[in-house]
Amino acid sequence: MNELERELHYPLGDTLPVAGGALEIAPGVRWIRMALPFALDHINLWLLRDEMEGPNGPLQGWTVVDCCVSRDESKALWEQIFVDALDGLPILRVIVTHMHPDHVGLAHWLCARWSTPDRPCRLWMSATDYYLARIGSAGSNGFGGEGAAQFFAAHGLRDPESMDKVRERALYYPSLVPAVPTQFVRLMDGDLVRIGAQQWRCISGHGHAPEHIALYNEAQGLLIGGDMMLPRISSNISVFESEPESNPLKQFLQSIDKFQCLPTATLTLPSHGKPFTGLHKRIRQLHDHHRERLAEVMAACAERPQCAADILPVMFKRKLDLHQTTFAMGEAIAHLHALWFEGKVRRTRDEDGVYRFRG
């Protein structure tokens, strides 16, 4: 546990759900944890006790929040959960916080698995993230490929091996999200969603994903924070080729401040890591973290003009694989853009076509 984590409190200690099982953390709220094939090696999913109108009256069951990536291992765990953790009740709907593969990857499979001729199991998520997931799963822009390679090249990542690997990732998203349901229910900031006997308020967030939806239950003091509020790491905040002059870091920091009004005792249920209290401390920690990174980037730009590839060793002290490098490049550009939009650095494009930032 690092020093920042020591400022937070983990009410469940080191207790984790067993693979293929669920752990009840509040009445009608169960925690599922599944492995991921990445450096970030797990995701937390949530089961919420629910009741919805069925063809013959009220129907008891569960709402799922987030799904995991589409792969056989994840499906097998879900099948075990269907048998052991649902108390014999069906899944009634699937809520997805945002469009990243570990959250939406199995939404199509889950909705199809639990839909009946009388009652569809619907996907609920924000419209922005829904349509981007549809685009990504179709492979029409790939969220990778030549466009991403050229974008990173314009920010200094030009070694042939990395360029070739980025080009090869054109089908990376659809490999993890092979399909998205063709119909959905739209979630928007401020919406109140009744799930069983509980009301959950939607809180939108930006910067990590286009329109991330967190869920807050005032009666139980619970926040399903998704990827907007993680206890151990800071969410990735990246500039992508589809929006090459965006300012996602500003959006992210403004978004997490929306949680400031929640009570101090709120139990935050993150997508990665363990449930924790200390939400307000974590918000301050994240502001401090990015303030420190911005100061480091600013100092580097004051010494000499920097491109995003130059900034990688300034912001990331460990060795990065390609998967991590693509995220790190996006995050380096995000920090450079935050300074650029504030007028603290100037951006130029050199004769070699690379954007450089100078203090």
UniProtKB/TrEMBL annotation:
Residues 42-272 form the Metallo-beta-lactamase domain. It comes from the Bacteria. Signal peptide: none annotated. SUPFAM superfamilies: Metallo-hydrolase/oxidoreductase. Transmembrane segments: none annotated. This is Beta-lactamase-like protein.
